[in-house]
Amino acid sequence: MTHSTTERGTVVVGLQWGDEGKGKIVNYLAPLHDAIARYNGGANAGHSVVVNGERFALHLIPSGILHKGKPAIIGNGVVVDPQWLLEEIAKLASREVDTSALVLSDRAHVVMPWHKDEDDLRERWLRVASETSSSQPIGTTKRGIGPCYADKHQRSTAIRVIDLLRPDELRAKLASIVPMKNATLGALAAALPEAHRPPTSPAYTIDEVARQCEAWGTQLAPMIADASSRLMDIIDAGGKVLFEGANATLLDVDHGTYPFVTSSTTTALGAPSGTGVPMNAIGKVLGIMKAYSTRVGSGPMPTELIRSESDRALAHQIRERGREYGTTTGRPRRVGWLDLEMVRYSARLNGVTEIAVMLLDVLEGLEELRVCTGYTLDGKPARFNPDATWLARAIPIYTTLRGFIGDVSSARSFAELPANARAYIELIQRHLGAPVRYVSVGPDNAQTIQMP
Ligand code: IMP
Question: Looking at ligand 1, which residue's alpha carbon is closest to its atom 21?
Fold first, then answer.
């Protein structure tokens, strides 16, 4: 079956290091689509969405859930911590959000308790090494994401969602996995220098884990399904799917600032494989970018405002205004000028057809704004390369613009924005060679300017 472009779905993808405000845009576009599907990541992601003045923080559940009755699908490319998912469902239920339309792919992988132990132990090992070498911890969210994806590719040590519904097969798998995990985690913990060792060493029993998995299976059973075929049924009936990316392009395991990345395909390239639909189910790719840069965790960030006292004060001001603290871990986000050259790389890689610029209001009142519009390496102009070593050596070239003053957050049209804010958006559009479709000037849906 073929589809015309107008019938096809939309991918919403972050163009920086995450936290660009994808949740707000997904929530805004959800009514125009027939289903919302997450294709990557796990409880490391955090989408905060404001609906009718109420703020919701979602981690695993697609933000489309806030639209009653619309299928909200957790695709096979997601790694699912069942405990976390059940708690998130309970929290939504306590606020009277109907979660009956939630579908969990039977092929998604399960984040097991040992994945979180391993995440923590690996970061401890990196911290020990950082005392005597230039290596650095990744600064993960410790939600077990990397170890779970590693086991998915390892195969023999992985548990898929469908396994939670097959107690006998599950026990057979656990018979080899549990002793292996106890042995490797025990050894990793025991060999750490004492000061870095966790207070207790993990030791799992097959029985206990099996019982826990069976309980999860019982509770999740009503939502477990072949999500790929559900989505294809929707598409075949002429429906449009909104694909909700988690994390963001520069955190992509292949195309991000490796090794300071997450472990999934965060770009739009991951949407078909992470949900099980053909590529021609996608017609539009909406790239989401903040009007400045933020990053959580380690890794290069060439435009970071950190080098002088005044830069750090400015970063603090932007952080406070933009509420730049992790939705998932509460960590303060690193803040920097907009790296438009990096966003150009992301826009091209994702094949963006349109752009949304978020949090423009946060920059209101700053005297001047700097935007990275190119790089040099060893004194010569150089094309952006996401490689961490390259980025640590590259020097940003800045374009300086005059800041904007005025009530940006109450503007409802492009014409109502101050002239210098319009010039900022025009620079973005010119540099990316893609149309800016939305400009967000505040958390509410009403604070979304649709471009002419
Ligand atoms: P992990 O995904 O927990 O393995 O973390 C790997 C890196 O990705 C760390 O630097 C995290 O801070 C970062 N990261 C993962 N998910 C997000 C996100 O949704 N927003 C921002 N940073 C993230």
Answer: 18
pLDDT tens-digit map of 75-119: 999 999 999 999 999 999 999 999 999 999 999 999 999 999 999
Q: In a 3-state reduction of DSSP, which class is residue 239?
A: coil
- Residue of the CA atom closest to atom 11 of ligand 1: 140
Other beta carbons within 10 angstroms of residue 87's beta carbon come to 14
The H-or-E segment that residue 419 falls in is: helix 419-432
Average pLDDT value over all residues in the chain? 95
Specify the ligand 1 atom closest to the Cα of 247. Answer: 19
pLDDT in tens, 401-428: 999 999 999 999 999 999 999 999 999 9
Which residue has the CA at smallest separation from atom 10 of ligand 1?
297
Cite the beta strand spans of 210-345 per DSSP E: 224-225, 241-244, 282-290, 293-295, 334-336, 338-339
Q: Which among 340, 270, 326, 322 is positioned nearest to 295, based on CA atoms?
A: 326
* Phi, psi for 75 (deg, rounded to 5): -75, 170
Rounded to the nearest whole angstrom, what is the distance from the C-alpha of residue 260 to the centroid of ligand 1? 9
Q: Which residues are catalytic?
A: 19, 47
pLDDT category of residue 2 using cuts at 50, 70 and 90: very low
**Chain centroid, CA 331 distance in Å:** 15
Which candidate, 3, 2, 33, places its Cα nearest to that of 12?
Answer: 33
Q: Which atom of ligand 1 is nearest to the CA of 251?
A: 8
Residue of 12, 22, 247, 358 best suited for mutating to test ligand 1, as the one with most atoms within 8 Å of CB: 247
Looking at the CA of residue 297, tell me the nearest atom of ligand 1. Answer: 10
Burial of 225: CB neighbours in 10 Å, binned 0-12, 13-18, 19+: middle
Q: Separation of 340 CA from ligand 1 center, angstroms?
A: 21
